[in-house]
Specification:
Pfam families: GlcNAc_2-epim. It comes from Phenylobacterium deserti. This is AGE family epimerase/isomerase. The protein has twelve helices and eight strands. It is mostly helical. It folds into two domains: 96 residues, no CATH class; 200 residues, Alpha/alpha barrel (Glycosyltransferase), CATH 1.50.10. A hairpin with a 5-residue loop joins strand 5 and strand 6. The protein is globular.
């Protein structure tokens, strides 16, 4: 088991290195430019880079014990990506403007719920139902209640590095499933939301009053750095579940990120010692802050 875990860890570390090179080698304001986006301008270079990266990823998947179906699916995706990289301008546009996306289902569910609340067509409600069902049936471990992060092509949780547990994602899905569960009268979803919240709290550092970035699958701390966005999700989940003490703690923790010399900016990363990394404020945090404030103001209005 330990050997399997180490092989999975190595495979994921290699994939993460390739992703960082491909999607974030250079940062130009809000845009990110990776190696494949840069070399795509040189004839043949983009294809060579994509083919090499694809080969390395498939090799690591085989070393980690991936199933033949999963490797075949990977090969098909990577072949398509390599082919796109060989097309002038098209390959550059794809490689430059469309980096990898995670937790797409979460954003889709949130969008569907918002459209439904705004009086959207029945298709939005159907999409929300489908995504909530996917979360309950596939994303959440039926035995532990832990939110799985990575899956193979057959929707089986990947072991090893996929033991990654992110408190912020647990809080996000707790908030979403509680919203959906209340609107549908679904007790299973609401119970899952409560469990996700409690598991997410295993990643809350009560001394700093912040949620850390990541835990291992045994819920021990994996990354004690605390980014801003998990604090907003902690606050949202605590508010919707009526956990006043946690909501107050989340507010105090979040307030530290907003205590900056430049009004309207924020900190992003808190070190384990409580100090902050001195860096530009990422614009992506604005969405998280605004939705957390909406939940806070809505709770305040409902309380009178």
């Amino acid at each position: 088991m330990d050997q399997d875990r180490e092989r999975a860890h190595r495979a994921w570390r290699q994939a993460e290195r390739i992703k960082r090179l491909s999607d974030g080698l250079l940062r130009l304001g809000p845009l990110r430019l990776g190696v494949d986006g840069v070399v795509a301008w040189a004839p043949g270079a983009g294809t060579l880079y994509s083919a090499g990266a694809a080969g390395l990823l498939i090799y690591e998947a085989l070393q980690a014990g991936a199933s033949p179906k999963t490797v075949a699916r990977m090969a098909a995706y990577l072949l398509a990506d390599t082919g796109a990289s060989s097309v002038p301008f098209v390959g550059w546009a794809i490689d430059t403007l469309f980096p990898a996306h995670l937790m797409a289902a979460k954003h889709l569910l949130e969008t569907a719920l918002e459209w439904q609340a705004a009086g959207g067509d029945a298709e939005w409600a159907a999409l929300a139902d489908e995504l909530a069902g996917l979360a309950l049936d596939r994303f959440i471990d039926p035995e532990t209640g832990v939110l799985q992060e990575f899956f193979d092509a057959e929707w089986r949780p990947i072991t090893g590095e996929a033991g990654l547990v992110e408190p912020g994602h647990h809080f996000e899905w707790a908030w979403l499933l509680e919203r959906w569960g209340v609107s549908r009268g679904d007790t299973r979803a609401r119970s899952a939301a409560r469990k996700l919240f409690e598991l997410g709290k295993r990643g809350v550092d009560t001394e700093r009053e912040v949620a850390v970035n990541a835990l291992w699958d045994d819920l021990s701390v994996r990354d004690a750095t605390a980014r801003l966005w998990p604090q907003t999700e902690y606050l949202k989940a605590a508010l919707i579940l009526g956990e006043e003490g946690d909501a107050l703690m989340a507010c105090r923790g979040l307030a530290r990120y907003l205590d900056v010399p430049t009004r309207g900016a924020w900190r992003d990363k808190m070190r384990p010692d409580g100090s902050f990394v001195d860096e530009p404020a990422p614009a992506s945090s604005f969405y998280h802050i605004m939705v957390a404030l909406q939940e806070l103001f809505g709770t305040a209005r409902a309380a009178g």
